[in-house]
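Protein DETOXIFICATION structure dump, as promised
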Amino acid sequence: MADKYPDICSHKVPSASQVLEELRELWGMAFPITAMNCLVFVRAVVSVLFLGRLGSLELAGGALSIGFTNITGYSVLVGLASGLEPVCSQAYGNKNWELLTLSLQRMVLILLLAIIPISLLWLNLETIMVFMGQDKAITSMAATYCLYSIPDLLTNTVLQPLRVFLRSQKVTKPMMYCSMIAVAFHVPLNWVLVEVMGLGVPGVAMASVLTNLNMVVLMAAYVWWGWRQGEMRWTAGIGDLCGGIGPLLKLAVPSCLGICLEWWWYEIVIVMAGYLPNPTVAVAATGILIQTTSMMYTVPMALAGCVSARVGNELGSGNPYRAKLAAMVALGCAFVIGIVNVTWTVILRERWAGLFTKDELVKILVASVMPIMGLCELGNCPQTTGCGILRGTARPAVGARINLVSFYFVGTPVAVGLAFLLKVGFGGLWFGLLSAQAACAVSILYVVLVKTDWEAEALKAKMLTGLEMGVCNGVKEKGHQNDEENRLLMHGDGNNNNNIDDEIF
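structure tokens r here:
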């Protein structure tokens, strides 16, 4: 696409052929990523099914452990790894292979450091949960599952950065195939470890670890032997690696906060549901609804990751208006996905809960809230996509601030006020989520559509990616690398620099 069309002029409306080409480019990436996300979702469902076959205590303990590990571990690692998105995508657009490989290795090092405190938390799950008043039998089972899941932290220190690294280079189908092969062995692994060897809960945890390990091995093998091996240098000194960690953290930490603040809010909803009248029914209904939102989230999550890569690629190539076109096309797709979600949640609201439970009270509660959840997705799809655009322009801190205000200063007061003070009950919690998603979507759309200066973002991308290219080619002396990287990589501001090369636009 970059060779087929010159960059779109700021005063011209993109042609239909340009929009269609962008749609093909975007969904050519997004479909395999969506399939991969669905496979990961299926893997989690399989683990829950095997836990359920072991008994109700094992299922409850496993569910508690899965929730704890998601909040304290996986959400953090996924969030930190997303800090790679702007650097890798813009470096790929600029053909700066040196920065690509260095950034991947730096992120692996960052995640290796991050899993040390996470491991300590996981080792002390039982103590933490007993202190919080959880049932001791369930907590003991959860602690066992958590203990055997600790090796998965190591696999994720490589798996999560590799996914961003490949997606940023439009390499999505190989990721889907690697996930497909790994997940295909997930059921046999569970059967052997749980049924044949009789390992029980530890077997379920070990099967998940081995499945992720298989994904890592397959993806790493593809990167090492099959993807630009002749152009990428994988040997770097410790000074090169450590010198860029600080600037990379300035992208990774806000990215992590933006993702975690939203992820954690759904767990807070489960806790709040436990304080409603008839908490057993409320929590069961909340579980079904959150599983449903997780299923629907696979598409906008894939779209967000791919538009982040597309925007970053075009900015790195010096094409600000094609980056803008990619953002606008992705937002249009997000609204269509949101409308589809509203439609099916309304149509199937009476039947959907029947797929999960036979409890009539739970079915009634789920049916009453399904349309509200659908409206939430109408805001969530463009909001998630907008966050991807912000990451592609190396502005994750903006998304983090918006998520903090929307979910915790808008959504939480509305949810608590309606559910408990005004006695609206279960539906009040979801009206709280709706208000949060509405505030979030409006804020992010305002930033993307009104406040984004695409020419300035292209300048910042040029400085971010061109700097280390020059260093690697010997243009700058080695001793100046870290100072320049810290000065420009994260702090370059196109609005304060008028020396923009004509070739960018």
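The mean pLDDT is 82.
lmk if u need the other ones
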